[in-house]
Amino acid sequence: MKHEKNISKDHLHLMLTVICLAAGVSFLLSLIIFPDITRGYTLGENIDWNRAAEHLEVLSSREHGGRLSGSPGNRKSLAYASDQFKAMGLAPWGDDNGYLQHFSGIVPDMDTSPDFRITVPDSPQVLQFQMYEDYSVHSAFYGTGIDFSGDILICSRTLNSYPRELLENRLIIAPRTSYMLPSLETARAAGAAGVFFTAAANWYGARDVNKPSEKQISIHRKLGTDFFSGDIRPAAVARLKQLATEVEHALLVPGASIAVELNFPVASSANVLALLPARSRSAQKQSGGA
Fold first, then answer.
1. What are the transmembrane regions (predicted)?
2. Which of the two residues, 15 and 94, has the higher pLDDT score?
3. CA-based diameter of the chain, in Å?
4. What SS3 class is residue 172?
5. Does residue 190 register a pLDDT over 50?
6. Domains of the chain: which residue ranges?
7. Which CATH entry fits the domain spanning 109-263: 3.50.30.30, 3.40.1190.10, 3.30.160.60, 1.10.150.320?
8. pLDDT for residue 285 is more than 70
9. Beta strands, E only, the chain
10. What are phi and psi of 250, to 5 degrees?
11. Confidence (pLDDT) at 152
């Protein structure tokens, strides 16, 4: 079963507003940082706003599929932008005298048919949990998939306050704190199967603001060691607690089974670059990109 996130009109308007604000800030900064290049331009000059809206509609359509790097929709969008630049008569400024400046990067590839269930002891009842509705999976930190069958341990304290043998070979549900990485490291060192953090408002994971940013060779905040982690909603935890027994300031839920595949393939994409006519004597060339 494929799970999709529904985006409301309000969310779409918010996204477009953020994009427009980011573009506006970039333009204003360019006026300050590169006055020679931007001199002669008037904000909004000769802009066909209806045509701009048509471009946005095309690029955000289902046909372009979100434009994820390396996807068919991404390649379609690159071709579309290149064709538009060519139709405008702009000179290419990409690789090999073309419009594309190629690059590659690692893009998380999430399982679209995960399975997370609890088999109730001495009963035919099976509790099913749905990705994005009940839980999510982190691709950052130690992010990886999971194939686990066993016990879930619902903890009410920080993980380093529990004995190692209680965490071992179990899927942990831990309170969310600002120090997610130490919790993950404690669970991994104890031999746990993975960690779900209880989540409410901050649904898709939080940055560890106390750890300095590092340049990674894969994706942003993806560390080298693989260890499963994710978020689980309080409502899902409440369902689990109904089946739990108390053990050492924690709750134990037997009969859990979860399988989620998460890979990190290298995907290829590109920037679309063209040369714009100069508007000042000191600016010989100006670049435009999409």
1. 12-34
2. 94
3. 83
4. strand
5. yes
6. 9-106+267-289, 109-263
7. 3.50.30.30
8. no
9. 91-92, 100-106, 109-110, 115-119, 126-129, 135-137, 146-155, 171-174, 194-198, 229-232, 245-246, 250-260, 262-263, 266-276, 286-289
10. -150, 175
11. 95
Structure tokens at 104: 């590659």
Task: Yes or no: say if 289 and 277 are a contact pair by the CB < 8 Å rule.
Answer: no
* 106/22 Cα distance (integer angstroms): 24
117 and 254 in contact (C-beta within 8 Å)?
A: no
Give the per-residue pLDDT at 290: 54
Query: Residues 6 or more apart from 116 whose CB is under 8 A from it?
Result: 128, 129, 130, 131, 134, 135, 257, 258, 259, 260
More confidently predicted of 29 and 81: 81
Write the single-letter amino acid at 45. E
